[in-house]
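User: Quick one: structure for sequence A, then sequence B.

Assistant: Sequence A:
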Amino acid sequence: MPCMRILFSLVVFVGFATTIFSVSTSSLVDTMQRVKKLATESLCLKANTNCNFSFDTVVRHRDIWAFSFSLTKGAKREIEKKEIRTKLETPNRRILEIGENTTKTIEYFREKEAKFSPLDAQIFYHETLNPKSKIVIKYSPDFLLEGSKIDYTAPLEWEREGISPGTKNTLHITGYTPTATAFRFNIQDLDDKPIPKLTFEKCEANASVCDANNFFNPPNKKFSIQLEIKAARKLQSDQPVFKCAVYTKGRDVPVAEIAIPFKPQPNYFLFGIVGFLFGALVAVMTLLIRSNAKRIRPNAL
């Protein structure tokens, strides 16, 4: 299973600790642009080769955000890798992996009243160790950079414990798009495969019946949609979560993926990593950050 390999990256980005950081605030798009600017300035200005920046993904847990990105500059020797770490790493920015030609990095922020402040990596780990909510949402960076938004409200039971077999409840999704957009909602596992025993029983928008496979939102308009999800009595999974994936017409990759845990959750020892037991939410965030196997080299994990 591709997602199982990704769990081994958990230790990579939670092993660093420091507690002092400078505070600045800005909007989401401004924050993303500043992440790009500062990372590029830190590593690329004095590079002798091409050094380009690209966002990989964005993951949010409640008010905590993680932005992962790649820079097309890597290293072979340890002394060169140490130099990259020295240039790039800050209290809220940590390196995930240094390859021969690419450096993958992650940066943490906290959102408060629509403003974003740098979040120390150790504080991130501490707050996600035993969270009140176990739901995580992953975004396509391009979708956010164009000014679009997706948010959710889930039943308290899902937040705390997950979805149980033989039950049904409603996931409320809200959002905004600056352009006319056709949405499609899928239920799938971490490997992007369907889960037959999890189904949409009802779709409502503005008190009217809607189609989860073709929901149209006019330009510059907020939308609100309720998706009733039914779990069969014999629902079983060897994965910790399922995803409600949000697609838009013209995009093959979801613009948002809401990861909701199963109850009871599978035995994490099956995943072969003890660290998952000590930070299940952190591991799920890692899974979402690096779960797109098509964009990850097999030997990069």
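Sequence B:
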Amino acid sequence: MSYTVEWTDHVNGGGEGVVAIVAEALVPIVFWPRVTIVRAIDEELTVVERFLLEAAVQLGKVTNEMIEEITDLPSEVLDALFGGLVSFGLLVKEGGAHVPQTEEVEQTLATGSLRRHSQDTCSIAFLPQTDEAVAYGGPLNGRRRRSPPAPSLSVATDKGYLPVGARTAGRRPSEILEDLLVRRRIAGLPTDIVKIASDSEEQPLPETCPVYRVDGVIRDGTPRLDLRTATGDQQTKIDLSGADVLAARWMYLARFMEDPEGLERAAAALGCVARDMVLGPKGAGRLEVRLNERAAATASAQHSLALPGGFNVIDAQSVITVQVELRPGDDAAAALFALDRAAARLRSDGAEAVAEILAAAAREFGVPETLLAEDALVGRLWALAQYDLVYALRESEDFAYG
């Protein structure tokens, strides 16, 4: 996969459970609002129903009179029981008798359940570039339970439309979804869905579809894709959890430094080489990168070592941000980090606290206070182009007229 890497300052954390930040991505999506689905609902076989089926198999056929003699069940109850078994395709009524469909009855007796088919509807978002789909507002296992409704998406991005691909264009939606159902590539559907029903009015998929500009995070677990997209003047939430291929693409970019080539690209973005960097443990969604003196000196020429930052990993359609905490890898690098920490705190705490700020930075990074002289701090502020802080530190010396 082709991608580039850039360093970026001031990366905001994505929150608890975040494993990757989707800074920006273009996602082609086809929404089908009322897709007819066929459910195979299993109902437990009652003792009486089992008895009637076993009797029908053993006797070849059964009548109300035959069962009444054995059970004393009233005729109207038997009519209802036989009618239900006929509706399930297990018995066929011939005159006054009921004849078993032997193969279907034996399967039902083996499973201990009656299977009936019913139709329902849901909305489905199809992702043509990753050949997967996510269902919304569909039935869940259990009574009267449904998944959350589909997001309201009405306006595509300035990118407009993108091709859906030659293997998808021109196919009917039910054909596409039936194929995905067989391959278990439709997330959010219950396990009892057995068919996507066709519609006589459905139109073949055109050669292009709307593309949406999204941002958000990937959380651990499914993984969960908590995304947002602009719809007019509003931000609309869009949950694409279950789109595992799309998530895997983004996670590949987020884990780019696990590959030696990716580590080289990360080092180049900092202006150093990979042998001067060591990956540390990852905690709370932020990756730790340790720099030796040579790498820290090179990186500090481009930005402050005290700022929280990260890498933007950019491919043709997405920007994934990897949060990084830079840490010193040796004592000499620790002095550079301490100096940048003091420079950062000087802006918030004020020049009058410079002695305390330098002492605190030395303690934090375990370096002798003698390495953090005020003159060294002034030089670092010049390098960072923070001239106002330089003037604040030198005010008493440079502007002492009298």
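DSSP finds twelve helices and 18 strands in the chain. The longest strand covers residues 30-44.

User: Thanks, that's what I needed.
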